[in-house]
What does this fold into?
Amino acid sequence: MNIILMGPPGAGKGTQASLLKDKYNIPHISTGDIFREAVEKSTDMGIEAKKYMDKGQLVPDEVTIGIVSDRLAQGDCAKGFLLDGFPRTTVQAQALDEVMKKMGKAISVAVNISVSSNILIERIAGRVSCGKCKTVYNLTLLPPDNTHTCVKCGGELIQRDDDKAETALKRLEVYQAQTSPLLEYYEKQKVLVNIDGDKGSEGVFEIISKLLDALQ
It folds into this structure.
């Protein structure tokens, strides 16, 4: 199965990706991870991407698409993959279709996790991560007497500036503006499935699992 996982910041994509990766034994591919890997390995595309990243600029579509294409061609993707964070625009989606076509494959399903705005803002504003091991937590799920220390490694828990309440709404507005055309694109291809993300991580995982089991 070749899966695209979509959803706004705070929708729980990372949690679902981790669960789905383990259940279906397919690689979870996030653009952030493969960018870092390509740079570390000094691939042609990685070197090109680094030029923009070092300047704090967005990596152009053609470079991003090249890096994703290289990753999808690796052996562990032969039985399927889970894309997270790509595509973000219809231009990227069209390019991905071309890459898949050359590989003799196609997107099986685009899963969009939809969550109410008020819940998203609450989740984002409560999100913290460990400064050492990068584990992500939500303050509402941590013990009241331990909201500053990572339970895994003891590192300090910090909150990113773009996760603070005053910027959360702006992030969601930008996401909706960018993603609406992409949802329409996959709806026209009849591969889009909207999932109610308000149900919590366990409920969402159960729904997505039933969906994917039916596709196998």
